[in-house]
Specification:
This protein is of the alpha/beta class and about 450 residues long. The protein has a nine-stranded mixed sheet. Helix 1 packs antiparallel against helix 2 and helix 15 packs antiparallel against helix 16. The chain starts with 5 loop residues before the first helix and ends with a helix.
């Protein structure tokens, strides 16, 4: 375990005490955090949370109370300390200090693929073209966490393949590193009672279940019976009182369904605490551009999420449409990067190019690679942060980044991917979305200027 500062110990102890009666001490927790945070954006966030919790009719107060009531006390304590204290209040300043020293960004989270193996064959999967026999050894996974933690990184996301193919190693990691959070994106079919109990005992593992909508839509993309297995898995986790969420990809076929009140209410009723939306990105040798949500559907989803956050007791994120809140693309090591199951270090799970392998270099070394620097030197990729992505929103950017850094493709193809063709194939979509996104951006900021005036 790394050395923990006296302030970190004091806040951890105080938070543990306050969480013994969270409903009574909710504002006390907020006030405690306010004494320790130093980042201006954290200060602003604390003030917004304080305002939410002072109003017991506010949807976020109700969300907090429901989550606390449904979650095991050990899980709540562990998650709260690891997320708020370690990953944010103390982790972020350490990341910034290290970034200044090494001359490159230090991410808030690292996404790793323990394995490329998967028990399903989902249509349009972004990982379809990785070699299926690839895996990261436990020693490599643990080294990444150990080195990352020294840089201030306390949040580790696991994907694949299907990460729960390695669920014994995930539990082992959680036990070896009890001060960090592990979040796994999973198809949900491998969750059993033993693993659910282990999640409760560890307290620092969360699962994001992949759903494409209701039963018909999910089974159509993921295989017959998958939806019901996810429902059963959620019931197991709810019984154990652990924190879990949902990951949903919206496409041309399902956008209206997964953005509907009925879909969201189903997730809330199943005990889901967070929902992470991803727009469909055509990756791999057999790219299917026809599944991409239309620019109009993406715009509808962007506005829909604004409504959700005002009315629904669920924490909702959108990997693309939240570009404004994140000040553009978060990938390329700026706030996260991706290590695939072969050890290749990619800027993003959807951008399959690399120059370094984690098996050969330390975490600090890969952060200063030519690829990450080429990526970061161009961020944000667009002044309109509703157009954050260098692939689907600004395809010329990924072309330039790969050429400048000399990155190689990480997928298994008979022929290397033609980046020029990819750029051309995405031109119509990027221009279509750009026109709509610019209109939304202008409308939002014109309204902000009027209110400020």
């Amino acid at each position: 375990m790394p050395r923990i500062s006296m302030k970190q110990q004091a806040m951890t102890f105080a938070m543990d005490k306050l969480l013994q009666d969270p409903e009574k001490n909710l504002l006390g927790l907020v006030n405690l955090a306010d004494k320790f945070v130093i980042q201006p954006d954290h200060k602003q966030m604390i003030q917004r949370i304080r305002e939410f919790f002072q109003d017991k009719d506010n949807v976020w107060y109700k969300f907090a109370m429901t989550t606390l009531a449904n979650t095991n006390s050990h899980v709540i304590n562990t998650m709260a300390v690891n997320f708020f204290v370690n990953a944010n209040i103390f982790g972020v300043p350490k990341q910034l200090k290290t970034a200044e020293k090494i001359g490159a960004s230090v991410p808030w989270a690292i996404l790793m693929d323990p394995t490329s193996a998967c028990n399903l064959h989902c249509t349009g999967c972004w990982a379809n073209d990785y070699a299926k026999a690839d895996s990261l050894s436990y020693e490599t996974l643990a080294r990444v966490v150990r080195e990352g933690r020294e840089l201030g990184i306390y949040f580790y996301v696991l994907s694949g393949g299907e990460p729960l193919v390695r669920k014994d190693d995930i539990v082992k990691l959680a036990r070896e590193f009890p001060d960090v959070i592990f979040l796994a994106f999973t198809n949900g079919t491998l969750v059993d009672e033993t693993f659910a109990r282990q999640m409760r005992e560890c307290g620092n593992i969360s699962l994001a279940f992949s759903l494409e909508g209701f039963e018909e839509a999910t089974d159509q993309r993921r295989g017959q019976g998958t939806f019901q297995k996810v429902m059963d898995a959620m019931d197991l986790l709810h019984k154990e009182g652990v924190v879990y969420g949902c990951s949903t990809t919206y496409t041309r076929l399902n956008t209206e369904e997964v953005g509907s009140d009925e879909y969201i209410q189903m997730l809330i009723d199943k005990g889901v605490t967070y929902l992470w939306y991803f727009t469909f990105v055509p990756v791999g040798g057999e790219r299917d551009f026809s599944l991409m949500a239309t620019p109009e559907q993406r715009a509808w989803m962007a506005e829909r999420i604004v409504q959700m956050r005002k009315t629904l007791p669920l924490f909702v994120l959108d990997f693309w449409n939240d570009g404004e809140a994140a000040h553009g693309c978060i990938a390329g090591g700026r706030r996260y990067l991706h290590i695939n199951a072969a050890g290749e270090v990619e800027p993003c799970a959807f951008i399959h190019y690399a120059v370094d392998n984690i098996k050969d270099k330390s975490v600090e070394e890969i952060l200063t690679s030519p690829l990450m620097k080429a990526y970061q030197s161009r961020q944000p990729f667009n002044d309109n942060q509703l157009r954050p992505c260098p692939l689907i929103d600004n395809p010329q950017m990924i072309y330039d980044i790969v050429k400048e850094s000399g990155a190689h493709p990480t997928q298994v193809h008979e022929k290397p991917e033609d980046l020029g063709r990819l750029k051309d194939d995405l031109k119509e979509y990027s221009e279509g979305w750009g026109k709509i996104a610019d209109e939304i951006w202008e409308k939002r900021h014109h309204k902000d200027e009027e209110q400020a005036g």
